[in-house]
Amino acid sequence: xxxxxxxxxxxxxxxxxxxxxxxxxxxxxxxxxxxxxxxxxxxxxxxxxxxxxxxxxxxxxxxxxxxxxxxxxxxxxxxxxxxxxxxxxxxxxxxxxxxxxxxxxxxxxxxxxxxxxxxxxxxxxxxxxxxxxxxxxxx
Length: 139
Known about the structure:
Layout: H1 2-42, H2 47-62, H3 70-83, H4 102-131
Helix pairs in contact: 1-2, 1-3
């Protein structure tokens, strides 16, 4: 009975240690990811390259069983910039690009899809006409 209590206590201590390490590591990854994103943007890089660099760093640093989603990584960057606004005051203007207008994105994607479908239809129609031969004397 005493061995069971010690094992339970040891397991609890190990679980607390692991959770502390994982959350601290995640917070550090988000903080440095924000630093990467903001420094690159401030240096004149475009949003896409800055975001890819920060996101790949956050994904690499998190490790573990579950992958960090782009939405989670963007949230970590925003959280870090807001929490440390004195340090990242120059970066606030770039945060809106991390969470773009989803309605606008969806509408643009639909327009692009319709445009591509229309191009495919036009291409198919032009191919059909080119295969046909017209005999102007046939009635």
